[in-house]
TrEMBL record:
InterPro entries: AdenyloSucc_lyase_C, Fumarate_lyase_fam, Fumarate_lyase_N, L-Aspartase-like. It comes from freshwater metagenome. It holds the Pfam family Lyase_1. Residues 366-442 form the Adenylosuccinate lyase C-terminal domain. Gene3D superfamilies: Fumarase/aspartase (C-terminal domain), Fumarase/aspartase (Central domain). This is Unannotated protein.
Length: 448
C-alpha cells in the first residue's frame, strides 16, 4: 500500500521537511489526484452525453476505492515508464464490466499527470502563501516595535551610520510583500487544466473537445487554457523561480541573524529552550540552528529551481525525458520553500532583540559612527571634500589614540564646536527617514 506523506531519504528532510507540504506530494495524494482528474473527465463527458449517467455513477465510486498493491503498481509503472496505464488497469478492475473502458477516452498520460500536478501546485501554493502571510505579520510586529531601536548600520560588514532594527526588518517585510504578490500570481497562472490529447490537437475528443476541457477545468478549480502546454513549462518554471527568489531572501535573513548573534555582537538571538542549539562538547554554546536550517533547506531549493530550467528543453509536441525531471524538482522545490518559510516564521515570531546591546554597539568605536554626520554639518563651511578629509583624519586619530571622535575633531579644528549646531551630535538624531520607512513598509504590507 501507499504510505502517507513522503518518507524522508536524507537527514535534511527528516529534520526539517514540512509535513503538510510533504503530504500534498505524497504518492497517495498524487494517486488520488490522478483519480480526481479521471473522474472530472468522465463527469464532463457525461454532460456532453458521451457516457451515460449510470456509467458516471460507477466511475465516481472510484474516488473512494481501495488503493492498489504498491509493489505490483510499481512494477507495472516501471515497465511502461509511466504510471497511468497501471492506474487505468487497476481502476478498470474495480469497475463493473459494463463500465470498463470508458475512462481516459481522448486524453493522454501527460494530460492526467499535468492536471494533477497543477492541482498539487495550487494546494502547495495555498500553504506557502499562508506561511508567508504569517511570516510577514511576525516581521511587521518587529518593525513596529523597533522602528526607533537604534543600532549600527553596517556596510561591507563594518560600522557605517546609525540605523534602527525596525528599518532593517522593514526591508525584509517589503521583500516578503513582493514575494507574496509574485508567488500568488505564479501559482494562479500555473493552475491550468491539460486536456489536449496525444500531440496537442485534441483530435480524439472530437468536436466537443473545447467544451469538455472547459467543463473539466471548472470541476477541478483550474484555469481553462486554450493552447496546449505539454512542452511549454514556463508556468511551472515561474513557480520554482519565485520559490527560489523567496528562499534567497530567507537565506539572507538567516545569515544576518547568525551574524548579529555572534558573541562579540550579541544584538539578536534565536528563540530558545532547554538544549536548543546545544553543543555536544561545549556546554556554553547556543548555536543559531534555526538560521542554519533555513540556509540548508533554502540553498537546496535555489539549486533545484536552477535544475528545473532543463525541463523546459522539451522537443516537438511531447517530451523525451525532460518531463521526468519535474516529477522530482517541482515537488521538492515547493516542499523546500514551504519548509524554509515555516522555519523562518517560527524564528521571527519569537526573535530575541537585545536593545541595550544594540545601543552599546553604536558607541563602541568612540563615536566614529557619526563621522558622516559631522562631515555633512561641516560641508557648508568647508566644502564636502575638505570636510571629508578632516573627518577621515579625525577618525584615524580617534582610533589610534583611543579618544572620542569629538575630541579628535576639536583638536584638528578648534572652531568645530561653534560651526556645528547642537554640539555634540547625537546618534539618535541621525536616523533620517527610518521611522517613516518603517511606517511605509507596514502600510504596503497591510494594503496588499
Amino acid at each position: 500500500m501507499f504510505e502517507s506523506g513522503m518518507t524522508p531519504t536524507n537527514l535534511l528532510d527528516w529534520m526539517y521537511q514540512d509535513k503538510n507540504a510533504a503530504d500534498i506530494f505524497s504518492l497517495e495524494s498524487t494517486y488520488r489526484n490522478w483519480i480526481k482528474v479521471e473522474i472530472a473527465l468522465a463527469q464532463s463527458q457525461c454532460e456532453k452525453q458521451i457516457i451515460s449517467k449510470h456509467e458516471l455513477e460507477l466511475v465516481e465510486q472510484l474516488e473512494h476505492a481501495d488503493l492498489p498493491d504498491m509493489q505490483s503498481f510499481y512494477e507495472s509503472s516501471l515497465n511502461v515508464g509511466y504510471p497511468i496505464i497501471a492506474l487505468l488497469s487497476y481502476l478498470n478492475s474495480q469497475l463493473n464490466t459494463e463500465a470498463r473502458g470508458i475512462l481516459h477516452v481522448g486524453a493522454t498520460t501527460q494530460d492526467i499527470m499535468d492536471s494533477a500536478l497543477a492541482l498539487q501546485v495550487s494546494q502547495a501554493g495555498a500553504v506557502l502563501l499562508s506561511y508567508i502571510d504569517q511570516l510577514g505579520e511576525a516581521t511587521k510586529s518587529i518593525v513596529l516595535q523597533h522602528s526607533l531601536t537604534i543600532m549600527p548600520g553596517r556596510t561591507h560588514a563594518q560600522h557605517a551610520v546609525p540605523t534602527t532594527f525596525g528599518l532593517k526588518c522593514a526591508i525584509y517585510l517589503s521583500e516578503f510583500d513582493r514575494h507574496r504578490t509574485r508567488i500568488r500570481r505564479a501559482i494562479s497562472e500555473a493552475s491550468c487544466i491539460s486536456l489536449y490529447g496525444a500531440a496537442g490537437t485534441s483530435a480524439a475528443m472530437g468536436t466537443d473537445a473545447v467544451e469538455i476541457r472547459r467543463l473539466m477545468a471548472a470541476k477541478l478549480g483550474l484555469n481553462d487554457e486554450l493552447i496546449p502546454w505539454h512542452v511549454s513549462r514556463d508556468r511551472f518554471l515561474e513557480v520554482s523561480n519565485q520559490c527560489a527568489s523567496l528562499c534567497v531572501s530567507l537565506v539572507r535573513l538567516a545569515r544576518e541573524i547568525i551574524d548579529l548573534s555572534r558573541t562579540e555582537i550579541a544584538e539578536v538571538f534565536e528563540p530558545g529552550e532547554h538544549h536548543k542549539g546545544a553543543s555536544s562538547t561545549m556546554p556554553q554554546k547556543r548555536n543559531p540552528v534555526m538560521s542554519e536550517a533555513i540556509i540548508g533547506v533554502g540553498l537546496q531549493v535555489i539549486g533545484q529551481a536552477q535544475m528545473n530550467f532543463r525541463s523546459g528543453e522539451m522537443g516537438h509536441e511531447r517530451a523525451a525525458g525532460e518531463w521526468q525531471l519535474e516529477w522530482k524538482t517541482i515537488p521538492e522545490v515547493l516542499i523546500g520553500a514551504i519548509s524554509t518559510t515555516r522555519i523562518a516564521l517560527h524564528m521571527m515570531s519569537d526573535l530575541g532583540v537585545n536593545v541595550e546591546q544594540m545601543r552599546k554597539n553604536v558607541h563602541m568605536q568612540n563615536g566614529s559612527i557619526m563621522a558622516e554626520a559631522y562631515m555633512i554639518e561641516l560641508t557648508n563651511s568647508l566644502g564636502r571634500e575638505e570636510a571629508h578629509n578632516l573627518l577621515y583624519e579625525a577618525s584615524n586619530v580617534s582610533k589610534i589614540e583611543d579618544i572620542s571622535l569629538e575630541d579628535s575633531l576639536v583638536r584638528l579644528l578648534p572652531t568645530a564646536k561653534t560651526i556645528i549646531n547642537n554640539w555634540p551630535l547625537s546618534a539618535t538624531d541621525y536616523l533620517g527617514n527610518s521611522e517613516l520607512i518603517c511606517a511605509q513598509a507596514v502600510g504596503q504590507w497591510n494594503k496588499n
